[in-house]
From TrEMBL:
This is Raptor. It holds the Pfam family Raptor_N. PANTHER family: REGULATORY-ASSOCIATED PROTEIN OF MTOR. Keywords: Repeat, WD repeat. One of its GO terms (molecular function) is protein-macromolecule adaptor activity. It comes from Saccoglossus kowalevskii. Residues 50-203 form the Raptor N-terminal CASPase-like domain.
């Protein structure tokens, strides 16, 4: 007999005990330890506002065949624009072909956006284009892409150059005016020499606008009417520039003239060509540029060599950004807008490639240098692995897939054996997210993810901040039985930390997944218990959740299992029933019709006090 003091006594000794020494009930460890609520973690993973880039202005100032007066080009020099040699066609046809190619390159990243080309335009044409796109975009983002290879460099007064109608003069276009026409939210891409000047001018004009607006408000307080619109906030304007304010673009004839644009819009193609031009040792030194163009597959098919490379590139650039950037900035640039996220992943490549030619791309918001991150070595190895097979594999069927993802999962597994909250987060977490897309590694990835989430609320918050939520939500559509225990465990952990996810589950019919798990007699009681917990969280103080689960027959499913031998399951079934009919008469009447009160009555004599 346990007295509560960990001393075993006999029945005869018990009769001699004073009242205060009598054995006590509820003396197991779970009853005696201090009740301390889990430390809450503030919810920062949800995006304050999702956004889409719905309109794109492609402004090309090339003036094919005429070099700008302030730049002396080398002979030979870089010529390709959007992978087209402008001198191989007539000037007008070249301009149109380049504009068409640029649009196709952007469409790969955002196929649903509205694209408008402005080829060798005047100031009025740019104004008309920008104001039209802003008007149609309303509160969504607009992208302005500027190629200034055929005009003088930007001025220190904050001007870029376009043309007059007869192409006899270069006409300045003020960044101040461009801000007015574009409004916010916007993203600007500047591919021209000395592009950093534009960023500096842009910031100065934003400050100037705010000062003018404040002055106007002050005058308004003095009785003067204020008609001045709010200036576009700088924080809502993202900018990517090809180089700093003092640098020229590379003229190496081995490179495209629009190297920055190539990095942003065709990253795999330029990354492979740059890799082959490097003098560093490679597994197969004899790989040529012609051989690169023969890599089989499609970029959007992960099962093909080219698609696998693209997949690895996405995982690596995501990982670099997540490990280096502050969480809020990572969320804004890499999770809020699909096109912006793609451009910034590719911007990391642009920084790496262009720095090797003494050119430093700059951005607003400014990013710390990431070109030397050790994950780039993993990218080089993946490229090497792919290229090494080009000369030996005759068909795509002979291609051996990269070990990259398996190796990264192993690294994550090693971290888990040593990991705790005080250590740096596992750098492979964004890669685990990408691996969930693959059927080959999905089971292992979910197992490791579950083990990570089991470390505590801090681990759940970290996984949510990296963007795991939409992936595990979509996996609820899978019919694979082997995933069920892992997904139920993962969702139990997520809902224990952030119960607001109940609305996402109901909206996407995710509750049906857990109803099927709970109703499955072949599912171990432990997993059915977790499913009951998830469902109890879905219906807790949430009318839509109660309604959805009532229609899913939750009450009958729970009542049928009240006599199960697993006491935790009985406990959570009772809690689930209590929560579904709290302030919900339709569920109460359903329970009455199913004789719920009679079936629950037997639990009053349950041997477990928690169930009682």
């Amino acid at each position: 007999m346990n007295t509560g003091f960990d001393i075993e006594i006999t029945e005869s000794e018990e009769s001699e005990l004073c009242d205060w020494q009598l054995p006590l009930a509820f003396m197991k460890k779970r009853h005696t330890e201090e009740i301390v609520g889990s430390r809450t973690v503030s919810q920062t993973w949800r995006l304050k506002e999702r956004m889409k880039t719905v309109s794109v202005a492609l402004v090309l100032c090339l003036n094919v065949g005429v070099d700008p007066p302030d730049i002396v080009k080398t002979t030979p020099c870089a010529r390709l624009e959007c992978w087209i040699d402008p001198l191989a066609l007539s000037p007008q046809k070249a301009l149109e072909a380049i504009g068409g190619n640029l649009q196709k390159q952007y469409e790969r990243w955002q196929p649903r956006a509205r694209y408008k080309q402005s080829l060798d335009p005047t100031v009025e044409e740019v104004k008309k284009l920008c104001t039209s796109l802003r008007r149609n975009a309303k509160e969504e983002r607009v992208l302005f892409h500027y190629n200034g290879h055929g005009v003088p460099k930007p001025t220190s007064n904050g001007e870029i150059w376009v043309f007059n109608k007869s192409y006899t003069q270069y006409i300045p276009l003020s960044i101040y005016d461009l801000q007015t026409w574009m409004g916010s939210p916007s993203i600007f891409v500047y591919d021209c020499s000395h592009a950093g000047i534009i960023l500096e001018s842009f910031k100065q004009f934003c400050i100037q606008r705010e000062q003018e607006y404040e002055a106007q408000i002050n005058r308004n307080h003095s009785g003067i009417h204020n008609n001045m619109p709010m200036p576009p906030p700088l924080k809502n304007c993202i900018q990517l520039a090809a180089c700093s304010s003092t640098q020229l673009l590379p003229m190496n004839p081995e490179l495209p003239a629009d190297l920055f644009t190539s990095c942003l819009s065709t990253p795999i193609k330029i990354a492979l060509k740059w890799f082959c031009n490097q003098k560093s040792s490679k597994l197969v030194p004899g790989v040529t540029l012609e051989l690169i163009d023969k890599i089989p597959g499609r970029l959007n098919d992960r099962r093909t060599p080219l698609g696998e490379l693209n997949w690895i590139f996405t995982a690596i650039t995501d990982t670099i950004a997540w490990n280096v950037l502050p969480r809020e900035l990572f969320q804004k640039l890499f999770r809020q807008d699909l096109l912006v996220a793609s451009l910034f992943r590719n911007f990391l490549l642009a920084e790496r490639i262009m720095r090797s030619y003494n050119c430093t791309p700059v951005s607003s918001p400014r990013l710390p240098p990431m070109y030397h991150h050790p994950m780039w070595q993993a990218w080089d190895l993946a490229v090497d692995h792919c290229l090494s097979q080009l000369s030996t594999t005759s068909t795509q069927a002979d291609y051996k897939h990269s070990p990259f993802f398996a190796e990264q999962l192993t690294a994550f597994q090693v971290w888990l054996t040593l990991g705790d909250e005080k250590r740096n987060p596992p750098e492979q977490l964004p890669i685990v997210l990408q691996v969930l897309l693959s059927q080959v590694h999905r089971l292992r990835a979910l197992d490791l993810l579950g083990r990570f989430l089991d470390l505590g609320p801090w681990a759940v918050s970290l996984a949510l901040s990296v963007g795991i939520f939409p992936y595990v939500l979509k996996l609820l559509q899978s019919s694979a039985r082997e995933l069920r225990p892992l997904l139920v465990f993962i969702w139990a952990k997520i809902l224990a930390v952030d119960s607001s996810c109940q609305s996402d589950l109901v909206r996407d019919n995710g509750h049906k997944y857990f109803l099927s798990v709970l109703a499955d007699p072949y599912m171990p009681a432990e997993h059915r218990t977790m499913a009951a917990f998830v469902l109890a969280m879905i219906v807790h103080n949430y009318n839509n959740g109660q309604e959805a689960c009532l229609q899913g027959n939750l009450i009958a499913i729970c009542l049928d299992q009240l006599s199960d031998q697993h006491h935790l399951l009985r406990q959570w079934l009772a809690l689930c029933l209590a929560r579904i009919w709290t302030n919900f008469d339709a569920a109460r009447w359903c329970g009455v019709r199913d004789s719920a009160h009679e079936k629950l009555y037997s639990l009053l004599n349950d041997p477990l006090p928690e169930v009682r």
